[in-house]
User: Fold this.
Amino acid sequence: MENFKLSWEKLIGHAATVKYLRKCIAEEKFPHAVIFSGAEGIGKRLSAEICAAALLCDNPVDGKPCGTCENCHLVAAHTHPDFYVVEPEETKTVRNIKIGQIRAMQAEAILRPINSSRRVVIIDGAELMNTAAANSLLKTIEEPPSQTIFILLTPNRSTLLMTIRSRCLSINFEKLETDEIRAALISQGTDAEEADRLAIISSGSLGRALKLKDSGGLQMREEALSALEKISQSRLTNEDIFKTGETVKEWSRDNFADFMVYMQKILRDISFAEISAPYNPDLSSRISNIKLSERKIFAMIELGAQFYRRLQSNANLRLLAEAYLFRLRELSK
Ligand SMILES: [Zn+2]
Assistant:
């Protein structure tokens, strides 16, 4: 079934990883708990769903879901009774996975599978489990219900409890080549020139490239750059900061996280432009005009890391954005 959305052909890159996963599935040796780590938007979630389809499929062939049976279609529609996805819940102030979500999953995971011979549970954003949730999950992974397979997804496995990591097989999804991203963008209808630019600045993640293209990412990067230009020229006013606060108020936590990442990458480009490949090669002439001492840049990067962590916990986005810009301006003096 060429058009089945959960087929390995839909995944860009990761050939060796796919080969390994298919072998595990085909030989009935898929680990009972596995961590897929790698940058956001790189293909972890798609891979996990393809694995789920193949593991629940009636007629998998060489670790591929058949794409035609009822089980395949139910997984693709997220309505399969033996397929369970846990994702972070977002409120105005916090984005995390709570113990109640893990308990709800556990209540199902211990039941016998309904349609298939096993169950598959995906925990997307596993690093966003709060401590109670992580400890609760740990108990399940220590004594897993037989027939249940857990796939944890996270950008960075070191953010998970060591006790969880030690009980899971780890699979790392490497960055994609610029050419792979470029070709994928073109095949999805992006024109060649834009595909070039997006591929270069996407840091090896197709998802990030698509976000830059479709969700105003380029605009956000422009906001970040222009704030830094103003700061370096001592012309970022209080009004500018409050205006950014107003804009940020309308953003999701993810949008603001993206904005912070653009800030950090531009700061890195200012300080490391001469020794490593820049994240924003298309902006190099503007970035090279930002004059800030190395000491200040490092302090600003550290500040960004602090605020990025605060973003994951209890924080009002607008106040956070304003506090960040005020502190950034302080550091430039
Ligand atoms: Zn099938």
